């Protein structure tokens, strides 16, 4: 009889723990959606895994940055067990998303946690340049981001800034030494990107940088 009672107690405890974990799982992702850092930290202190994935296979920190739940993102970044270098199936990191969306403080905090500034393929600098976020571009370059990083089709941050970013982002990249002569696998240069995006201001800046590289003849 005692053995059966022990088994029954164990089963009750196991079922209780299962329900508690299930509840914590739902509460964790709900807290991210609500941008509630206190609830997140409380769950983490109780042992919840910060690297749990939601039903769609997304990391909590990635969701927070992607959806603009910045207080939730800060709480997760501050938690030492959070994997800040989780990658999505598209090989996107939280730092890349923060760079694209212009979340400057989050970018700084992720870098302080040793998030990778450089990576193969698309890099954070591509994303910052695409968003035209000058301050983030400057931060990444200060952290030794490779200015002429090549995407899988060899497009550079300057090309992305030329087509999608701001004139200021193009100007900064050129000032910091981005190569305006590079071409991607389709044979397109940064000037071609600017023209395709109907960005005359960017095209003029890049053309001027190319002219400045030409040797001047003597008369």
TrEMBL record:
Q: Does the keyword Repeat apply?
A: yes
Alphabetized InterPro entries for the sequence: Ankyrin_rpt, Ankyrin_rpt-contain_sf
ANK repeat start and end residues: 90-122, 120-152, 153-185
UniProt keyword terms in alphabetical order: ANK repeat, Repeat
- Has keyword Repeat? yes
Name assigned to this protein:
Ankyrin repeat domain-containing protein
Organism per entry: Ramlibacter pallidus
């Amino acid at each position: 009889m005692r053995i059966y009672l022990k088994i029954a107690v164990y089963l009750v405890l196991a079922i209780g723990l299962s329900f508690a974990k299930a509840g914590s799982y739902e509460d964790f992702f709900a807290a991210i959606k609500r941008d509630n850092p206190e609830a997140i930290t409380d769950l983490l202190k109780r042992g919840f895994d910060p690297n749990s994935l939601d039903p769609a296979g997304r990391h909590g920190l990635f969701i927070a940055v992607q959806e603009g739940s910045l207080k939730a993102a800060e709480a997760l970044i501050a938690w030492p067990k959070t994997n800040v270098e989780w990658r999505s199936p598209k090989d996107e990191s939280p730092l890349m998303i923060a760079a694209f969306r212009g979340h400057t403080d989050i970018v700084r905090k992720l870098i302080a946690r040793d998030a990778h500034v450089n990576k193969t393929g698309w890099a954070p600098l591509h994303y910052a340049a695409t968003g035209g976020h000058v301050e983030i571009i400057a931060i990444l370059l200060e952290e030794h981001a490779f200015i002429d990083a090549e995407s899988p089709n060899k497009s550079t941050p300057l090309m992305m800034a030329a087509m999608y970013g701001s004139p200021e982002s193009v100007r900064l990249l050129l000032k910091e030494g981005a190569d305006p002569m590079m071409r991607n696998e389709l044979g397109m240069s940064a000037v071609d990107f600017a023209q395709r995006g109907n960005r005359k201001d960017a095209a003029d800046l890049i053309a001027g940088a190319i002219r400045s590289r030409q040797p001047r003849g003597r008369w």
